[in-house]
Amino acid sequence: MGKKEKSRPRRSFTPEFKTETAELCRRGDRSVGQVAKDFDLTETAVRGWVRQAQVDAGERDGLTSSEREELAALRRENRRSREDVDILKRATAFFATETR
Fold it and tell me: Domain check: are 48 and 76 in the same one?
């Protein structure tokens, strides 16, 4: 078994940085691998950004960035609503047994 590589700390990048990085690859100035090396990124991350840029530009099927944001917000809201309903069900059951 080989030695396990140390994982790098999780970093976050601005949408502008992702867009500009993906655009370098899409224009053909540099390959995905070269861009990843130049900016100390993983090729997987850069490929994902390029893929998302293609979806946003309408060149590829999938959810656009704004649709992804909306979907995430709706899922959060749905989860909170389910939690609220669960709390109300428990409260109703508790008070129903208390009033008897």
Answer: no
Give the N- to C-terminal CA distance of the chain in Å, as an integer: 65
- Residue 26 CB-density burial (10 A; 0-12 exposed, 13-18 middle, 19+ buried): middle
Is pLDDT above 70 for 2?
Answer: no
Specify whether the CB–CB gap between 34 and 21 falls below 8 A: no
Full residue range of the structural domain in which residue 83 is found: 65-100
**Token reading at 17:** 């940085």
Cβ atoms of 26 and 54 closer than 8 Å: yes
Give the global pTM.
0.68
User: Which residue is associated with the tokens 């944001």?
Assistant: 69
Domain total for the chain? Answer: 2
CA distance 52 to 66: 11
